[in-house]
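Internal ticket - ligand job 605, zinc ion:
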Amino acid sequence: MPINSNKFSADVVCKILSNSGLISEGQKKEILLKKEPLKRKMEKARAMKQPSSKQRFQTSISIVDVITALNLERADNPSNVLDEETIYQALAKGWKIPFKKIDPLKLDLNLVTTTIPHTFAMNHMTVPLEKKDGYLIVATINPFNREVMQDIAQASHLKVRPVLSTRTDILKLINEFFGFKRSITAAENEFSGPTIDLGNLEQFVRLRSAEEMPSSTDQHIVNAVEHLFSSAFDQRASDVHIEPKRDKSIVRLRIDGALHTVYELPKNVHSAIISRVKNLARLDMAEKRRPQDGRIKMEKEGIEAEIRVSSIPVAFGEKLVMRIMDPDVLFQDLENLGFTSMDLVRYHQFINMPHGIVLVCGPTGSGKSTTLYSTLRYLSSPDINITTVEDPIEMIHEDFNQISVQPVVGITFASILRNILRQDPDIIMLGEMRDLETAENAVQAALTGHLVLSTLHTNDAPSTITRLLDLGTPSFLIQATLVGIIAQRLVRKICPHCKEPFEIKGSELTSLGLDLGADDEMELHRGKGCFKCRNTGYLGRCGIYEVLPITEAIKKNIVPEADSVTVRDIARREGMITMCENAVQHLLEGVTTYEEFLRVTLEQL
Ligand SMILES: [Zn+2]
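stdout (C-alpha cells):
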C-alpha cells in the first residue's frame, strides 16, 4: 500500500507537526528514531488481534498511528497528549485538505455501504460519506492515494473529493455500518429466526466492542440487534424506536431529547428484529396484538445498563420502543443531584428518620426516579430490608426487593403494601401515591415504624400537602407521619466542552420575565455548540429543588382548610429556597442558561 507516498513520509508529517508547534525538535528526533521498531511491534500486535477468520484486512500502520502510540506531550500545551485527532487536524491544515469529524447520524447507510466493498474500505481506511454538489465526499486517512480515489470515482460514476478523518472514526464507521448492513442483508437472504432461550429474570447481553465485531454471517439478526444497541450506546441515545411502515421499517434514536432517523430496514427483517428483542426482554413472542413491557439487562465495556422494552401494535405491525436506563444517571451520589449544601443537609435529616413519610414531587420526567433510586442506594446496607413497589420497575438493583404492580391481575399498590408489611421491611419505596387507599396504607406503614418514600404528581412542595388532604387523608395522620417534601425539575446543563461567558443586560432579562434585580451588564454562560453536544450547547441534566421540612409551624397548618400559599409563606420564612430561587443559583453559577431557566420556570413554577 503506498501509504508512504512522499507527502505521507515521516519527514513531511513531522515537519508539518513541528511547524504547527505541536512537537519539539527533541520529539521529532524521538519519532524518527523510534518509528521503525515501534511500527514493527504494532504490526505484530495488529496481526495478533485479527482472528483467524477468512477476512483478513491489510491496513498498514501509518506514521500517524506510530506518533499517536508514542503518547507525546503537546509541545504547545504540555498538559495535553498529542492525540490522533490533533495530528490529523494539523495535517489537514498543512495539506490544505478539509478535516472531517464523522457523525454517523448524518450519514446514509446505503451510500456508505454500497459504493465500495467492505474489504476495500478496510484496506484503504477510506469510506464514502455523502454526495454533495455532484461530488462524492470520501473520508480517508490518506488523500494522496490516487488509485484508490480513481477506483471509487469509477465505481460511483462521481467525481471524488477526499476529506481527512481519523483512523478511529473511519474504522468505527466501517465496523458499524458494514456490520449492520451485512447482518440485515444476510437475514433478508437466508432468514434465520432467533432461538427461544428462557434464562433468568433478566437476559444478560454482553455487547462486543467494535474491534471484535464478528465477521461470520451466522446469527444475522442477533448481530443486527447487537449493532443497534451498540450504536445507541455510542450515541448516548435515551430511546431506540423501531417503527414499521408500509414497505419498510425505520429505526430512530432519541438523543438529548430529539429523534434522529438512523436506519431504514427492509420490511421482512422488521419482524425478525422485533422477535429478537422481544425474546431478549422475555416478552410473549406469539402475542402481537396486545401491548407488552419487559426489560433487558446489558453490559458494554464493563458498564451495566438496563433497557426497558415496550411493544405496541400499530397500523403496519408491531412498534418497539426501547428506553435505555443508564445506571450512572439513575444511581448517583446524593451530593451530585444538584441540591444546595443546606438542602442536602435537610434532605439527609428526612431520610435518616427511623420512620415517617418522605415525598418527592414533580411532573413526569422531572427526575423523581433518580432521586429515589439514589436515595435507596445511599440507605441500603446488609442489615436493612428495602422493599419497593413500582409501576413498572424502572431499574433492578440487587440490594432492593422490588415488586411490580400488575393492576390487570389485581396486584395494586395498596394490595402489595398490605402484604409486604408482613415481610418485615425497614424502608419502603412506593412508586406513586395515586389514591386514598395507597396513601392510607403508606400512613399505616409509617405509623408502624417504617420509613416510606414515595412520589406525587404535584408542581411544588407546599401544594403536596393540599393534594394529600384532597385525596382524603385525615389531617392528623399527615401531621403524625409526614417528615418532609421535596419538589423538583430537571434543567439541561451547559456543555462543558464549549461553554463560554457572555454579557447581558439585567434589564433585557427582566423583559423576558427573569427579574434578577439588576439592570446592569452581568455575566452568564452558554454553550457555543460543539461536536460533543451535537451543536446543542447542552450536555446532561441536573435537578433544581425545593426542600420543605415539616416543622412544628407547618404542622399547625396541616388542617382540612389548609392552603398552599400560607404553607409556602411559613416555609420561606423558615428558610426554604424555592425551585425558582434554586434555578437562579444554577444560572448564576453557569450550570445552565437563561433560556433553560425560563423554559422550566415558565412551564410550571
Ligand atoms: Zn458542546
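Auto-summary: Confidence is low (pLDDT under 50) at residues 191-218. The chain is about 40% helix and 25% strand.
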